[in-house]
Request: fold
Amino acid sequence: MQTPDPLVRADGASSAPTTGHAQRIDLGRHRTHWPTVTAVIPTLNEADNLRWLLPRLTAVDEVVVVDGESTDGTVQLTRLLRPDAVIIIEPPAGKGRAVRTGMSAASSDVIIMLDADGSMDPAEFGAFLALIGRGFDFVKGTRYGCGGGSDDLTLLRNKGNRWLTRLANLLYRTKWTDLCYGYVAVRRSAVERLQLTSTGFEIETEMCVNAVRSGLRIAEIASHERDRRFGESNLKTFRDGWRVLKTMIRLRFRGRIQQDPAPQALEPLPVGWQSTALGRAESR
Reply:
């Protein structure tokens, strides 16, 4: 994974302290540029869960809901709780197809993908966005990082995820800690470089490995996954695990993705931006 050098400013000069001279801070150079944020949410009969989730999306500029022809009032509830939401209805063709549709419809600087079931807490947005503001293109949640965890992982899914993650690290020479977790923030300017084609839950793996193959700046951030609030997951452990494995191996032998010009960086944010972002999320 590539890590921006914290001792190099955006203008290329060293930010290391000098000796013998007082340091002057030019406040004019620290203008805050808030990135706009779109939340992309695939749905299929998630009305009960959206009653909890949608009112908590106060820190985003746009909500895109991609619905797979729900029959439980998901669309109607979304229109009631979030009248400004972009709602796209399409035949149910899998999570990957819905994620790709939502990313294509998003118009903000940063796209955050989260599940509709209430397992991913919007209160964590600030931590994801802080890393985007520090120069990363692709920020992924990990349930195994310090401060992370899961109330939902079964023993079987936990072992399968760990095994697939180790294999991915071997194949792609990376240091992922959690491959199969779809809480992701990505710069919209980097989406085309991911070249996503998956239709199912393997979309999470495809995003990760194509971020590596295309040379994006990548980071992981601790996240706590909660239990699905209502209903049952559409994920099938063996079926979807097999699809993840096939995707990982197939893409390994396709080489690097053709390098396009690097995504345009957001304006550097001032020290303390992360805590400010979290406060913004709670106060709006």
Q: What stands out?
A: The chain has a mean pLDDT of 79. Residues 97 and 158 are 25 Å apart (CA to CA). The first strand starts at residue 37 and ends at 43. The domain at 35-255 is CATH 3.90.550.10 (Spore Coat Polysaccharide Biosynthesis Protein SpsA; Chain A).
